[in-house]
Amino acid sequence: MHEEAPDFARILEILTNHNVEFIVVGGVCAVLLGAPVTTFDLGIVHARDSENLSRLQNALKELGAHYREHLPKHIEPTLTDLESSGHHLLATCFGPLDVLGAIGIGDDFSRLAGSIEKLNLENGLSISILQLNALIEVKEKTAREKDIGMLNTLKAMRDLSGSDE
């Protein structure tokens, strides 16, 4: 398992280099939107067409990805696994990566794609992240205890910015 501080930028770089279609969600998305929160894993929702699944699997191989819950075994996700709408909680050589077929009920890549913004990172990468209101909506739907504090922070950000997108 990864013991150093996660390097989410490196994970994003490898996914991007493999031309994987994905949307950054969750805590890293909140941080990229400017929220003063801490997160311990990178969450993405990926397109589940066969070409993208193949690119994703190749990127995951480069990342040395395997399921976190099966330690000490190193079980890698298969194409069939990645094709599902389920959650794949993975350990990589650069930190935890949650590969999500969907968030909640029906919030898959195609549904979320209408609520993204492109973000250019300092390292030259261009990635897709959820817009603030879409992230708030997702957090409200999932309503997990760990997300309540973040949800309040995101709503305060929206209120301060006057954003209605």
Descriptive account of the structure:
The protein is an alpha+beta fold and 165 residues long. The chain has one domain (9-158): Beta Polymerase, domain 2, CATH 3.30.460. It is built from seven helices and nine strands; from the N terminus they run αβαβαβαββββαββαα. It has a five-stranded mixed beta sheet. The chain has a two-stranded antiparallel ribbon with strand order 6-7. The N and C termini lie far apart (39 Å). The model has no long low-confidence stretch (mean pLDDT 91).
Number of domains: 1
Specify the overall morphology.
globular
- End-to-end separation in angstroms reads 39 Å
Low-pLDDT parts are none
Structural class: alpha+beta
Number of helices: 7
Précis, in short:
The chain has seven helices and nine strands. Strand 6 (102-103) and strand 7 form a beta hairpin.
Keywords:
five-stranded mixed beta sheet; two-stranded antiparallel sheet; 165 residues; alpha+beta; 7 helices; Beta Polymerase, domain 2
Task: Summarize the topology.
Blueprint: H1 8-17, E1 22-25, H2 26-32, E2 42-46, H3 50-62, E3 66-67, H4 79-83, E4 87-92, E5 95-100, E6 102-103, E7 107-108, H5 109-112, E8 116-120, E9 126-130, H6 132-142, H7 145-161
Parallel strand pairs: 2-5
Antiparallel strand pairs: 1-2, 3-4, 4-5, 6-7, 8-9
Helix pairs in contact: 6-7
